[in-house]
Amino acid sequence: MAKRFIFALIVLLLPLFTRSFSPDQPTDRRLLVLVDDLAVRSSHSIFFKSLQSRGYELEFRLADDSKLSLQRYGHYLYDGLVLFAPSVQRFGGSLDQAAVLDFVDAGHDLILAADSSASDLVRGIATECGVDFDEDPEAVVIDHIGYAVSETDGEHTLIAADDFIQSDVILGATGIEAPVLFRGIGHSVNPANTLVLKVLSASSSAYLANPRTKLSSPPSLTGSAISLVSVVQARNNARVLICGSLDLFSNRFLRYGVLKSGSSKKHDKSGNEQFVTEISKWVFHERGHLKAVNMSHHKVGEEGEPAMYRISDDLVFSVEIYEWSGSSWRPYVADDVQVQFYMMSPFVLKYLPTDEKALYFTSFKVPDVYGVFQFKVEYQRLGYTSLSLSKQIPVRPFRHNEYERFIPAAFPYYGASFSTMVGFFIFTVVYLYNK
Questions:
Q1: Are 85 and 56 in contact (CB under 8 A)?
Q2: Which long-range contacts (CB under 8 A, 24 or more apart) does 257-262 make?
Q3: pLDDT per residue as tens digits for the range 308-357
Q4: Which terminus of the chain has a smaller tally of CB atoms within 10 A, N or C?
C-alpha cells in the first residue's frame, strides 16, 4: 500500500515540477544552459541576465556532467536548451546527439553557439538541423574589407557584420542599429531548404580560410553564401538558432565599440546586445507565435454549424487568429490569410478580411459539386509559426423533392415532350379515321 501511495503521489506532483511547451502559454520559461567551463556564466553574464530579466529560469550545467538528463518519467524537465559548449566531445548522463534532436522534435527550442574548436558532436547537431559548418576545423571567416578596426586583430578575423535578414518579426521593428561583431566559423545553408533562414550573412568580400596558412586553393565558401547566424523553424514550430561564434554573445563583444573598415562612423557600442536580445525573443516564442481558435461555419441567416451542406448553399466561414506578445495574446492583423474549400483540389480559395480584433471571416456559395469537402486554413509567413487547420463537411446534391416544379432551363424539353404527344394524337386520329 505504501508503494502504491508513493507512486500515485509522484504521478500527481510530477506535472508541478516538470514543464513543457503549452499552446496557451507558449513562452519557454525553464532553460538548461550547457557550458564547457562555468566561467562562461560570468563572461556571458549580460546575455544571461537579459534572459532572467524577462522571466526565464536558467540552470547552468557542465556539458559533461554525469547526471545530465532532459527528461524524467517521459516528461521534459526544460522548455529550451542553450548549448554554449562548442568543444564538448561527448555529453554526460543520458544526453547525446539523438536526445538533443528528440528534444527539438518534441517542439522545444535550441540555441547552439560554436567556434573554431567545434567538436564533431556539435557539428553533427548543426548538420541535422540543416546547417553545414566547413569541414576544415581551422577555417574561420576572414574579411579584408568589412573587418572591424581593432588594435589587437591584424588577421581581419574580427568582422563587423551588418547584412541582416529583412524581417521585423525576427529582429524587431526598430532594426539593429550598429554592426554586429563576429569572430568564428561560418556555415552554409541549402537554398532549397525553406526551413532554414540566414539571419546574419557575411559581406561579399568575406571567405573561409585558415588565417595562419597561405591559400593553396580557392576557399570553399565566399561572400554572402557564408552565413554567420541562421535560424530554423521546424514544421512542428520548434525554433533553433545556430551561430558560428560563441564570442558574439560575450560581454566583451556586447560592450565593445565598433568601427567598420571603410566607414567613418564609429559606434560607441556594437549591435551585439540588441541583436542577441531580439533574436532570443524570437527563438523563445516571445514574438511571431500564432494560434488559431474558434474556426466555425454556418449557413447565411443561421447560427449553428450544420451536419452537411447542400450544393449552392450560401455559407459564412470565420476563424480567430491571435499572436503571443510575450505575456499575453493579442489580435493578429494581416491581409494574406486564406481559406480553401477543398476536395482533392481547392474549389473555393478566398482571402479572409478581418475586423482587426482577431476575427477573420468571409462568405461564399457552395460549389455545384457534391462530395466530402474540407475547410482548410494553411498559413505560412516569414518569421511566424505556421498554422494548419481543417474541418471536414459533406456536401449533398438536391433531393428529388427539392427541385423546382418547372425548371426554366428545361422549357425546350417540356415543349418537345408536349409537341410529341400532340403530334402522336393527331397521327392516331388521322390513321384511324382516314379512308
A1: no
A2: 258/148, 258/160, 258/178, 258/179, 258/181, 259/148, 259/149, 259/160, 260/146, 260/147, 260/148, 260/149, 260/160, 260/162, 260/179, 261/145, 261/146, 261/147, 261/148, 261/149, 261/160, 262/145, 262/146
A3: 999 989 999 999 999 988 888 999 999 999 999 998 889 999 999 998 88
A4: C
Indicate if the pLDDT at residue 183 is higher than 50: yes
C-alpha cell, 41: 556564466
Instruction: Say how far apart CA 21 and CA 31 lie, in whole Å.
Output: 12
pLDDT of residue 13: 42
pTM above threshold 0.90:
no
The Cα-based distances of 102 to 87, 175, 312, 335 in angstroms read 21, 33, 48, 36
Q: Which of 63, 94, 83 is nearest to 125 (CA)?
A: 83
Could you tell me the pLDDT band of residue 256, with boundaries at 50, 70 and 90?
Answer: confident
Beta strands in 300-422 (DSSP E): 309-310, 314-324, 329-331, 338-343, 345-351, 359-365, 371-379, 387-396
